[in-house]
Q: What sequence folds into this?
């Protein structure tokens, strides 16, 4: 089971998103996602979240809100538990740095859900927009198609 974090960073009605277009053989290629990555051995989800955000964006989080765990079950990829965060409390010396996995861009909230992204991401991202404090769901995928969303 893979363990990862994903953070949605917001500022003044805009959300920082990563368009995955640079990494070879990337299962997220062509999609917009939040900022995150794999939890390293001995690392807590909170530590991973802060590290991944800084490595991919140059942003130092002062705090982040933990929303819950999203379980991914797939017939194609390794099953995954993803720890979901959001933050509007950060320090950044520049607008954003470059990322070797794709292009970073601030996107207006009203346009965000119309971007190409995983169908399951839309489900939990809408809950983040709605201010849900605790989000727990299982997303079942067949290939790239989300065939079941179960809220827990």
A:
């Amino acid at each position: 089971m893979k363990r990862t974090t994903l953070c949605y960073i917001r500022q003044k009605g805009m959300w920082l998103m990563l368009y995955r277009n640079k990494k070879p053989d990337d299962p997220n290629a062509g999609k917009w996602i939040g900022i995150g990555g794999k939890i390293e051995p001995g690392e807590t989800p909170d530590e991973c979240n802060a590290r991944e955000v800084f490595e991919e964006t140059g942003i130092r989080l002062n705090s982040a809100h933990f929303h819950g765990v999203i379980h991914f079950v797939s017939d194609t990829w390794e099953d995954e538990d993803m720890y979901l965060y959001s933050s509007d409390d950060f320090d950044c010396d520049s607008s954003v740095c470059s990322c070797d996995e794709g292009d970073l861009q601030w996107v207006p909230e009203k346009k965000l859900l119309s971007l190409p992204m995983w169908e399951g991401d839309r489900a939990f991202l809408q809950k983040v927009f709605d201010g849900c404090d605790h989000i727990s769901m299982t997303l079942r995928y067949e290939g790239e198609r989300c065939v079941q969303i179960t809220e827990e």
